[in-house]
Amino acid sequence: MSYLTASGKGALDTVMSSLSFADKACRLCITASTVDFDNELIRWCELEGFDTTFIPYNYDDRHYIHELNALKQELRVTESYAVIGFGDAAAFCLEHFLKVTNTSKLCALIAYYPSRIPDPECSYASSMRVLVHLADQTVQVLSASHGTDHKRHIVKRRVGAGQGTGDRLDFAYTAYSYPGISPGFAESDLDNYDPVATEIAWTRTLSVLQSGFQKHLDLEKTWEGIEQVTSGVDGFEEKYFSSDMSTAMTNYTTEETPTVTYIPTLKGASGIQALHQFYKTSFLQGRPPSMRLRLLSRTIGADRVVDELYVAFKHTQEMPWILPGLEPTDRQVEIVLVSIVTLRGGKLYSEHIYWDQASVLVQVGLIDRNSVPEQAKGITALPIIGREAAKKILLHDKEENIERKTASMAAQVDGSDIH
Hints:
By secondary structure, the protein is of the alpha/beta class. The protein has helices at residues 11-19, 39-47, 61-70, 87-96, 195-212, 219-227, 245-248, 272-283, 357-363, 387-394, 399-413; strands spanning 26-32, 51-56, 80-86, 106-112, 116-118, 129-135, 138-143, 153-158, 174-178, 259-262, 267-270, 292-300, 304-314, 332-344, 347-354. It folds into two domains: 22-212, Alpha/Beta hydrolase fold, catalytic domain (Rossmann fold); 219-413, Nuclear Transport Factor 2, Chain: A. It has eleven helices and 15 strands. Strand 12 and strand 13 (304-314) form a beta hairpin. Helix 1 runs antiparallel to helix 6. The longest helix is centred in the middle third of the chain and has 18 residues, at 195-212.
């Protein structure tokens, strides 16, 4: 469901207070070997409340170290700073801050596609968090010194895939690989820019920054603040189907282009004006009186909230967002819907909504499971599940209870509350 809400007065204040870093400085340095670095990441960091500055890496090591050390100036006893480096600047910082004596007040170091990395078995000071994003690249690996010559050896290694779908590498410090993605993927002004890899890396980066600065934000509280219902409005469904358009649209970021996409039907919009029109003409008009929602689970990340929702309704009116172009069938529908919301600085940035459209089409009579194509040999019915799938999740997979509660759930869809 699109979280188009009617936030009451004070809701935005609640959101921003849960994101505020004003109680102590969170100084963040972004550094790269260019003076015209892409501003997008800088803007993202500023939106999250970090006191952000940029330092170019000019290969004058002595001057560069002086500038890095200046970041600590005027910080109070309890305050700290973090560094995000790119390319050669990231490589220098990874090596420089490997020495414990250089890590005073440094709480986090994040490196994007460094050209050189320390030995994967090296460990950093326990007082700081380290995160390395490695593209599909060849890197120089600085091995630890051996013997009496105290010389370090440099070898070239190709970055391979990591473990699982997340591609985490088996390093002593936290590192991820991004197979098939070239260096420069996180800079929108470069040809190698990859928005998907950028989003994944940013979520990981933000999580490390929050941990390093000990800012364990209550993102659920932020999300609930956005969902806050106008005083006097009752019903869980009103959080998702508010008619107060002017207030609801203020929950979307104006620093980026907010986007909402209903994946199974490709309905939705991008941009404030287009979203306003979509909600007004397609979404809010597509809510039958019988619509009932129930939160089944919620997963919280550094910048995302994933809601699993039970949705039940009787198809008594046109619903362009889920059944576009279809006249009312007067049939009951029950599905499980997943909403993935991304926030930027306490504002809605994107939402992706998924559900089983085949199940919906079966329930409204557009697909007959027993109508099997001739070429589908060996099966007697199409592998599509109707309402039973949603009921199974709602009842915690207790199959023995499904039949017993079917009548009760049907009554809920007809107008009673879901408890």
